[in-house]
Structure formats: structure tokens, C-alpha cells
Amino acid sequence: MLQTDLEFKQRYGSVKITKPLNKRDLELSERTVSRIMTKNQ
């Protein structure tokens, strides 16, 4: 799991990305955002 809020921001960029997805499926959103962030690195 994430250790700090800073680490979360570095991984996911913004809560705005995950918030809409969380309404559908938290697990799915985490995988989706992880995939998006990995491509952007």
C-alpha cells in the first residue's frame, strides 16, 4: 500500500482521476489508473 500522501500524488497525480472511477469499482479504478500512470512514465 501507499506509505504517504506524497507517494500517492506521485503515483496517481490527482484524486480527480480516481474519484469518478471509484464510483464504479475501486479495484478496477486502481488497476486502470496504475496502467495509465505507468504509460505516462
Explain the overall architecture:
With 41 residues, the protein is mainly alpha-helical. The protein has one domain. It is 76% helix and 0% strand. It is built from three helices and no strands.
Strand and helix order: HHH
* Unreliable spans: none
Regarding quaternary structure, what we see is single chain
Number of domains: 1
Biggest sheet record: none
Strand composition percent? under 5%
The percent range for helix content is: over 70%
Judged by helices, strands and strand pairing, the structural class is mainly alpha
Task: Kindly provide the radius of gyration, computed on alpha-carbon positions and rounded to a whole number of angstroms.
Answer: 10 Å
Treating each run of at least 4 consecutive H or I residues as one helix, how many helices?
3
> What would the principal axes of the Cα set say about the shape?
flat
First-last Cα distance: 20 Å
Task: Give the number of DSSP strands.
Answer: 0
Set down the secondary structure blueprint.
Elements: H1 5-12, H2 15-22, H3 26-40
Helix pairs in contact: 2-3
